[in-house]
Write a structure and sequence with these properties.
By secondary structure, this protein is an alpha/beta fold. The protein has one domain: Collagenase (Catalytic Domain). It is built from 7 helices and 5 strands; from the N terminus they run αβαβαβββαααα.
């Protein structure tokens, strides 16, 4: 009887912290406009790569194709963000820039969006031994990171490095590219704030 009580108590003690530590996953939706006509398979692989980077930060992403859904005609809701896959890089960006984030700094960043230019991504992918999906997914995560961090700041390395180097893109393809701990916490805090 004493042994049974000890085993039962041990299970309760062990299960206690795990139950308290569980939190429902944080989720956002990204509305994707694809005027660049990035091939569907590449776009799916890029979304998977970016989602994997965010998942390590504690955030799940639902991707919404604007052309197929028609839902992108309305303004995004609180936990929805816009991504544009561009068919040409803006002339105001440096030649090696893969994308940009337009931040409004409005209370919930209304009007902000991320954009990644497909031609330089495709050109870079052609020079590497990995497919174009991870090469596109890493800058997608980077630019969405700017919106979720409400900042144009960069880190020395990781997904928020000022320039994603080929080594970073290879890390993205391997599932090793990530936000640092402070960035991940700031992103989770921002999503919780928006959800309130």
């Amino acid at each position: 009887m004493k042994l049974l009580f000890s085993l039962t108590l041990g299970c309760v003690v062990l299960a206690g912290p795990a139950i308290r530590a569980y939190q429902a996953p944080l989720r956002i939706t990204v509305r994707v406009a694809n005027p660049a006509r990035v091939p569907a398979g590449t776009a799916v692989e890029a979304e998977r790569t970016a989602a994997d980077i965010f998942k390590k930060a504690g955030l799940e992403i639902c991707w919404l194709d604007c052309e197929k859904s028609g839902a992108c005609l309305s303004e995004p809701r609180r936990l929805e963000f816009r991504l544009h896959l561009l068919d040409a890089p803006p002339v105001t960006l440096s030649a090696d820039a893969l994308g940009y984030a337009f931040l409004t700094h409005a209370p919930r960043n209304e009007g902000s969006y991320a954009a990644v230019s497909w031609p330089p991504v495709r050109h870079l992918a052609d020079t590497m031994e990995i497919g174009p999906g991870p090469v596109l997914g890493a800058p997608i995560a980077h630019e969405l990171g700017h919106i979720l961090l409400d900042s144009h700041a960069h880190s020395h390395d990781g997904v928020m490095a000022e320039r994603l180097r080929p080594a970073d893109l290879i890390r993205a393809a391997r599932g090793e590219l990530r936000f640092d701990d402070q960035q991940a916490e700031a992103i989770r805090r921002e999503i919780r704030r928006r959800g309130d």
